[in-house]
């Protein structure tokens, strides 16, 4: 636990770079969804190693929240 009473997070939590496949697994979506979020401008790669795009988990989760909010709005 952190001093503020919340769950402890690794110091590099927001700085960790992951592949699209791992980003998809962490967000509970398929890799094609990560590519779609990039195409729609919800997510941008933080870096690239060869042909592999790398993403910050923090950015992936923010894109997920944005996408879920838009789906709810579309249903209303």
Oligomer: single chain
Mean pLDDT: 83
Taken as a percent bin, the fraction of beta residues is 5-15%
Radius of gyration: 14 Å
**Biggest β-sheet, characterized?**
3 strands, antiparallel
Assign the CATH class: Mainly Alpha
CATH architecture label: Orthogonal Bundle
Span between termini: 38 Å
CATH topology: Multidrug-efflux Transporter Regulator, Chain: A, Domain 2
Q: How many beta-strand elements?
A: 3
- Structural domain count: 1
How would you classify the helix and strand content by structural class?
A: alpha+beta
Per DSSP, the total helix count is 3
Unreliable residue stretches? 1-9
Spatial order of the strands in the main sheet? Answer: 1-3-2
Q: What is the molecular shape? A: globular
Brief account:
This protein has about 80 residues and is an alpha+beta fold. The chain has three helices and three strands.
Tell me what you see in this structure.
With 76 residues, the chain is α+β, with helices and mostly antiparallel strands. The chain has a single domain (17-75), classed as Multidrug-efflux Transporter Regulator, Chain: A, Domain 2. It has three helices and three strands. The protein has helices at 20-27, 31-40, 57-75; strands spanning 17-19, 47-49, 52-56. It has a three-stranded antiparallel sheet. Helix 1 (20-27) packs across helix 2 (31-40) and helix 1 packs across helix 3. Residues 1-9 have low confidence and may be disordered.
């Amino acid at each position: 636990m952190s001093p503020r009473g919340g769950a402890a997070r690794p110091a590099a939590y927001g700085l960790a770079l992951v592949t699209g496949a791992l980003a998809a697994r962490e967000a509970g979506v398929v890799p094609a969804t990560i590519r779609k979020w990039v195409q729609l401008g919800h997510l941008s790669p933080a870096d690239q190693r060869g042909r592999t795009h790398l993403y910050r988990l923090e950015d992936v989760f923010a894109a997920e929240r944005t996408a879920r909010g838009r789906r709810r709005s579309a249903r209303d």
